[in-house]
Amino acid sequence: MEAINQLVAGFGVALLPENLLFVFIGVLAGTIIGILPGLGPMSAIALMIPVAFGMDPTTAIIMLAGVYYGAIFGGSTSSILLNAPGVAGTVATSFDGYPMARNGQAGKALAIAAISSFIGGTIGVVGLMLLAPTLAGFATSFGPAEYFALMVLGLTAVVTLSGKNINKGLIAAIVGVIIALVGIDTQTAAPRFTFGLPELFEGIDFLIVALGVFALAEVLVLLSKRGKNSELRKVTSLRLTRKEAATMTPPTVRGSVLGFFTGVLPGAGATVASFLSYSFEKRIARDGATFGKGNIKGVAAPESANNAACVGSFVPLLTLGVPGSGTTAILLGALLVLNVQPGPLLLTDRPEVFWGVVASMYVGTIVLLVLNLPLIPLFAKVLRMPRAMLLPLVVVFCVVGVYGISFSTFDLWLLLGFGVLGFLMRANDFPAAPLILGLILGGLMEKSMRQALQISGGDWTVFVTKPIPAVLFGLAILSLLPAAIGMLRRRGTGRAVRDNRNVEKAEQEETLVS
User: Which UniProt keywords apply (predicted)?
Assistant: First the structure.
């Protein structure tokens, strides 16, 4: 009852005209920035911190939080329309969102993303309100060994994203992990996979790989299909049928719950949540074979998960003062600058800040929905552009996004190289999703593994003797078994077919001889 009273007081804060205005400003700025590759939520919040100086702390944090989840929402637009995910949390959305756009359902895909994001954000806010103190205590029980096991479990999602060929999926994932390890080792200061190039000492930025493997590779694929009926189809209505609404509802709810609990864990975040939700839905769906070809479940699940995870990441930030990602670390700095100390005492010392932010998130999700649904037809018109104009636009989009990060021409050559790599992967049926997932999780896995081994004195059994890592590793193995068994069965069937053909051929030769 007390929580409800506090939430009502929070809505009283969030619905003040000044706070409503800054919710709108934050959400709008975040959406626009999320659409543009190269300017993710971290850059957006960093740019908005000077604006927050001198403002009321509650109003400032409400605005910055709006920028955060607005950017995650906006990233889905470029992922669906151009296959150019500028935000890591929307990579999984492009797997089915872009095929829907190619099939003339861009408006419908954007509508599904908007509605799923709204539901995910709403469920996340409810979870934040009801479970914040309890979940904060649970998050503190996760040490390096637990996080390493969680990342391994996340990486096993590669199996469900690899179609029928596990080997190609695993190869792509390993390549992604190798790319994540490029640069100077933070512990030994030894260069790894840099080939003596100083430009690689700081590693390879995620955006370069994502735009190269997805967007630039798509340009090369379309150019290779010149004259082969590769034009975009007419964009259809964004209205959903009752059957489609019923189909997207269960994965949206499941993705929201999974995303929120994943977001609570520091270091996991929206990206891991979206991949886990996508792979889970593909594993349990009866029509799992259609994932990657324009299945609406493949849009609803990751979009609800990444928005719920954004809200979930505020649990450790506000209740423990522990940032779970680079974005929440910037938010933590903003809180401290505004003389607000996040932690267990925040709920008692500054309840107007905590509950005002919680209430503003719900208001912000409504603003996102109202703001973006009318704009969907305008966004979808991008696909009506002639290919002669659209393809150069995508290339410019990629070049500006990458060059704007470091102002380095070397990064542009890397972009081209990853574009060619993505094109070759498609030509040889290597899935791109495992490579991206390996890139995202590779650095986190290495860091957690080293920390766990340092704490245990080099004892590798720490990963199986603790209950949480043991359970997570068990789930990872179980998730691999169905795909491995299916591959072995297909090999056995193929071997039997070849043996029968050899027998028939031998019998025919004997008949001819006789």
Answer: Membrane, Transmembrane, Transmembrane helix
Name the residue with tokens 């996004």: 401
Q: Are 223 and 243 in contact (CB under 8 A)?
A: no
User: Are 269 and 297 in contact, with CB atoms under 8 Å apart?
Assistant: no
Cα–Cα separations (whole angstroms), residue 143 to 213, 262, 267, 298? 33, 15, 11, 31
Identify which has the larger pLDDT, 189 or 330. 189
What does the pLDDT read at residue 125?
84
Q: How many domains does the chain have?
A: 1
Domain range for 165 is 2-513
Per-residue pLDDT of 259-282, as tens digits, reads 998 888 766 678 888 888 998 898
Phi and psi at residue 132, in whole multiples of 5°? -55, -55
**CB of 306 within 8 A of CB of 274?**
yes
Contact 215, 81 (CB under 8 A): no
Q: Which of 335, 443, 325 is nearest to 42 (CA)?
A: 325
Mean pLDDT of 177-201: 88
pLDDT at res. 380: 65
Q: Could you tell me if 358 and 128 are in contact, meaning their C-beta atoms sit under 8 angstroms apart? A: yes
Q: How far apart are CA 324 and CA 268, in angstroms?
A: 7
Q: Please say if the pLDDT value at position 506 is more than 70.
A: no
Place of tokens 């955006």: 207
Residue position matching structure tokens 């991008």: 382
Residue percentage of the chain with pLDDT more than 90 = 10
Q: Which is more confidently placed, 356 or 299?
A: 299
Distance from the first to the final alpha carbon of the chain: 93
Name the β-bridge partners of 183: 192
Cβ distance 65 to 362 under 8 Å? no
pLDDT tops 50 at residue 231: no
**Cross-strand pairs, 192:** 183
- Between the alpha carbon of residue 190 and those of residues 184, 187, 198, the distances in Å are 6, 8, 13
Q: Count how many residues are written for the chain.
A: 514
Are 479 and 159 contacting, i.e. CB atoms less than 8 angstroms apart? yes
Backbone angles phi, psi at 183, to 5 degrees: 125, -170
Distance CA 109, CA 332 (A): 34
Token code pair at residue 384: 């009506």
Hey, how many other C-beta atoms are within 10 angstroms of the C-beta on 459?
11
- CA separation for the pair 119, 267 (Å, rounded): 23
Predicted local confidence at residue 296, as pLDDT: 92
Q: Quick one: which of 429, 446, 398 has its CA closest to 82?
A: 398
CA angle 135, 138, 143 (to 5 degrees): 135
Kindly compute the dihedral angle of the four CA atoms of residues 278, 279, 280, 286, in this order, to the nearest 10 degrees. Answer: 90
Q: Please spell the DSSP secondary structure of 419-446, one letter per residue.
A: HHHHHHHHHTT--SHHHHHHHHHHHHHH
pTM surpassing 0.85?
no
Q: What is the mean pLDDT of residues 60-76?
A: 83
Q: How far apart are CA 224 and CA 423, in angstroms?
A: 10
